[in-house]
Specification:
The chain has five helices and no strands. It is mainly alpha-helical.
Length: 94
Amino acid sequence: MLEVLAALGLVLPAVTSIAPVFVPLVAAGLVVTMIGAMFGHARRREFACLGLNALLLVLSAVGARGHQLDQVPNAAMAASIRAAPVGARSMVAR
């Protein structure tokens, strides 16, 4: 249930343009949730679930970082971030 609420927190601000500043915070909270889920599944020896948790953790972390870069207040700073090397640019949401 918590994951569904986090998904709504990631999607709704982008769709409605209401409080988009909370999207990186929701994504960071989802990262913490996925870390806890991974520990819980590992404790129960449910190793089949770890891959999905790891995937969601990585997607949440990339989404949080990409959304933070979109909200950089200084246009020159945003341009310099976008001009980063190719490996670093893959984290920037366009």
